[in-house]
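[scheduler] slot 2 assigned
[scheduler] job type: sequence-to-structure, two independent chains
[scheduler] chain ordering preserved from manifest
[runner] begin chain α
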Amino acid sequence: MPKKACFAILLSLCVAAAGLPADEWGKQVKQAIQAQRSGDLKASEELLLKALLSAQAYGDKDPRAAYTLDYLGTLYQQKGDASEALRVYAQALAGFDKALGPESPESLSSCGRLAEAAEATEHWAQAEAPRRRLLASADQATSHDPVALAQAKSDLGLVLDAQQKWDEALPLYDAALALRRKALGEDAAEVAESLNNLGRLWLMKGDAKRAEALIRQAAAIDEKALGPADPVLADDWRRLASVLRKGGRDKAAAEADDRADAIAAAADLKAQGDHPQPKARPLPHPED
């Protein structure tokens, strides 16, 4: 289901769960959802702005304004207005914090949407604070879910990595790898993701030999976990080709590229004859 549709449903469910009455604000939000679903983004935006005015009448201890701003953020993303999306997502997060508390599910979900929007537009510095906050929350959670904690560490590591804060990213990647190995086993695709992260980082730090070993490990795990015809595996081999090329091993790099192309072609055939395969979170190549 597209993200915009998911959030429209989520907004409706949150409104119902919060016990908010079907007032003028509620009617305007429903009309905005209908307009968005029909493709009339301008009308949806106008209705949401009206809903925001209605919501503000309830004061900052009421979550209506935060819900509206969060939905506006998804609308601006859909329209391609990244800067406006980031602005209203930040306002939504502040609103949820004040109305429901910083550890509320709504605040943490809003925090995640702000981080994702910043990352999607490569505003890495803006993504860092919400990623740090999400990691702190995962670390303090009474349930201590190791998989969720590993993901939070990996997410913050990627943001720091993108800002070339490699010495800060490295221990986060190492910790995520250890958590994933213990919780999911050596052959999980998430373990391969962590190995790829580390491989790329070590290449940036100038250790091509270590980078190659880590990326080869990742490719071996992905082939076992995802199969020999998966686009993620093709990405692994392209990443390895980049490492080899940077080390001056052009022949080996060309062979790795050829293998990546063959895997990608097999993946396309499989997708046409079957159902499209789910893709793991994309990772930048070392040359990016």
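[runner] end chain α
[runner] begin chain β
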Amino acid sequence: MNETRKLSLRVFGKITGVSFLVIVIGYTLNWTLIFSKIISSGDELQTFTNISTKELLLRFGIVSNLLLAIFSILLAWSLYNLLEKQNHEISLFAFIIRLVDPFLSLITVSISYISLQLLNVKDYSVYYGSDTISQIIGMLFNLYTSTSTIPMVFTSLGFIIFFIVLLQTKIVPKLLTIFGIISYSIILVYVVIKILGMGDSSSILGSIELVFYTPSVVFELIAGIFFIVKNIDLKDYQETKT
């Protein structure tokens, strides 16, 4: 491997690390500081009231979600460039699957933005009534957490495939890579259970949803710091074509 290729791999490693940290910290802050203060689960009218009184805050949340979708694409791209010489076909497959997440997220953000515009369109209330419009807007935003379920299927599956290829390169500690595979396997199993209707908010699984996501949060923090602070080990990296 020539020096140019080594430098390229290390740059993509840094991009991977920054993207991991931005995404995990960004989504955490976005929910904690913005959407948790707006969304009132099971109460559409209260959610609508929150939106009306905190419209600027919500707009910041929409902008930050757009930025996070961009970083999600950047993360998939950097992982693909790190691994495509190791296994081009599988890495490309993982890249395509992983791109479904930000694509669906952009659709969700678009729906949120369109719903927000209804606040300033008075004509709708003439035909449907202000209470009806309020409930519709509140309902759309209350579906915010549910809309992340389908994208997480593709996120988890894409990461699992990426990390299986990463395991073959030995450019990061084996234990860390295995932890990543396990973390996203847990999420994949949970979201499938949720889609089947056994993990809604009224169930035991739904009430402890955070438990299933915690390992991936810990992994992304550790992986992000690792890729940023430490130059990836290239001595055992063997580029192959399949």
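[runner] end chain β
[qc] chain β: Residues 3-38 form the longest helix (36 residues).
[scheduler] slot 2 released
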